[in-house]
Specification:
This protein is of the alpha/beta class and 111 residues long. The protein has a single domain, classed as STAS domain (Transcription Regulator spoIIAA, 2-Layer Sandwich), CATH 3.30.750. 40% of the residues lie in helices and 22% in strands. The protein contains 4 helices and 5 strands, in the order E-E-H-E-H-E-H-E-H. The protein has a 5-stranded mixed sheet. Strand 3, helix 2 and strand 4 form a beta-alpha-beta unit. Helix 1 runs parallel beside helix 2. The longest helix is centred in the middle third of the chain and has 16 residues. 36% of the residues are buried.
């Protein structure tokens, strides 16, 4: 299950489900909502996300591209050790700025 909150103009999406082919549609609905509102500034909080599979990684990359097309950005925050390993091993993490916590990720938009 995923939920969305906002801090100013930054959308923060958090959840506790693995980001896999089973949950990608649900997460994509939240991301689509953020993308429909002007210049998207999105932080995906991975703190409670237990796993990312290839469908989840593809969703992250596609969303990042869609954000960039609108002059926005998708940031990742607080990945656990497994998610960090997956992002690093696949090279997907190189496409993102990954922050240790949500606060730093949100602050990065003020730069």
């Amino acid at each position: 299950m995923f939920q969305k909150t906002c801090q100013g103009t930054v959308h923060i999406i958090s959840g506790s489900d693995a980001i896999t082919s089973k949950s990608a549609d649900e997460l994509n609905a939240f991301l689509d909502e953020c993308l429909s509102k002007g210049q998207p500034r999105i932080v995906l909080n991975l703190e409670q996300i237990p796993l990312l599979d290839s469908a989840g990684l593809t969703l992250l990359l596609d969303t990042s591209d869609r954000c960039a097309q609108r002059g926005g950005l998708l940031q990742l925050a607080s990945p656990n050790s497994l998610c960090s390993d997956i992002l690093r091993a696949t090279g997907v993490g190189d496409s993102f700025e990954v922050f240790d916590n949500v606060t730093d990720a949100v602050r990065s938009f003020a730069r």
